[in-house]
Amino acid sequence: MTKHNGNPDILIIGSGMGGASLANALSGSGLKVQVLERGDYIPRDHRNWDPKEVFHNGIYRSGERWIDRNGRQFEPNQHYCVGGSTKMYGACLMRFRPQDFQAVEHYEGISPAWPIDYDTIEPWYGKAEAMLGLRGLAGADPSEGTRSAPYPHPPIAHDPLIESLKGKLEQSGLHPFPLPSSVQSAPAGGCIRCKTCDGFPCKIDAKGDAENRALRPALADPDISLETNVEVLRLLTTPDGRQIDGVEVRKDGTSEIRRAGIIVLAAGAINSALLMQTSANSAHPDGLANGSGQLGRNYMAHHLTAMMFVGPRRNPTIYQKSMSINDYYWGDGDFKWPMGNIQMLGKLQAGMLTAEVPFVPKFVMSEIASRSVDMLAMSEDLPDPDNRVLLDKGRVNLIWQPNNLVPNRRLAKSLARHMRRAGYPLALKKHGGIETTSHQCGTVKMGSDPATSVLDPLCRAWEIDNLYVVDGGFFVSSAAVNPALTIAAQALRVGDHIRA
């Protein structure tokens, strides 16, 4: 092994939403910050918008094979690249509801309280929205909390068919609102309203992601640097276990030790927990900062049901992902427990569908897709200490038994009822499985008591003074909205704390 010279003040492991947002928060501070990324930049070429390449061939997926609780192999939806999984996300960036930070009774258990409340993180939500250039309409979401600032930009306009559908859903008693989104349309950006946001990397850089909205501006500061194609192997501590003394990495086939005053894990909820586990030593025999026994536990991923509502007429919509519904977020008169969020999906295409059902001819799926409106029903996955991530003989073992599924089924059923009234009699659906890791969270949870949590309320490890975790691993509960904005807001909050 060789030692790396010119040690930074802060070493950030991972360039996804958490790592990139933290780097952004530290720009201009005078601190020397280095971001290590396991992958490389995603190229911009014709394959970025090719459903066959992205969905069938999985050209940007990691290609890893993990095992589930029964020992079955599966390929996770993992991406190692600059910007992390946000290069593939749909740019939907929603705040938690204020009640999401409190203990909430669900159909199948309790969603526990966070060590911070909505008012604590609210200013940072506003800063994250400004950094990411969000488009939305304050006050349009009936379940939204108070805001100290409006959205930076007005919402994305609906295509004509979606505008018509919005009116029909309002007549049915719902309150659809503009989906908060980071899509950089004119005059600030070059979005052409294509069909390739959800699941695709944007080849014209119009989708606001962690790389182009957070990391790239941070790299304009000469004190902040990025190094790609560096795999972190383990973290080394001082003999007493109170400090991270080095980071062992593999670069170009050679092992090296990197050092910094502060180490920040932002490798994703699964890989950050695994790194802390594989870094076990005599001072931390059960994994770093695992005195509570909670490291790697409480894995959550949301219950996601993609739905195609098919009507008799063709749907000419190109950009579809512009509307959301939260009328059922906290249940309804017939079901007192929370159900979750409904949001439009990017327009499904035949090449995307046949990746899931290869036995159906492409022309059949093309006909279905040409007449469909596509939505996602998202419900909360409750934390369970038995849902966890481990290493088994060098392979990732993701042990996940879904819970609290009834609310998602009821949410999908309620949505289908409204869509039938709106003229879409046929509903096709697919529920996301264990391979859907895009909303991973909860494995390194924060709390107010070191006996029951791994991190303190500012995401610092209770037992290691210079170790922080700023990816979805710090989540205490998953709520029922996309996790990216909460990761960004908390990372900005932690960055301000580190600067101070």
Mind explaining what this structure looks like?
The chain is an alpha/beta fold and 500 residues long. The protein is built from ten helices and 21 strands. The strands form six sheets. Strands 8-15-16-17-14-20 form a six-stranded antiparallel beta sheet. It has a five-stranded parallel beta sheet with strand order 9-3-2-13-21, covered by helices on one side. Strands 1-12-11-10 form a four-stranded mixed beta sheet. A hairpin with a 2-residue loop joins strand 11 (244-251) and strand 12 (254-258). Helix 1 runs parallel beside helix 5 (210-218), helix 1 (17-26) packs parallel to helix 10 (484-499) and helix 3 packs across helix 10 (484-499). The chain is globular, with a radius of gyration of 22 Å. Residues 1-5 have low confidence and may be disordered.
What descriptors fit this protein?
about 500 residues, alpha/beta, six-stranded antiparallel beta sheet, five-stranded parallel beta sheet, 21 strands, about 20% helix, globular, disordered N terminus
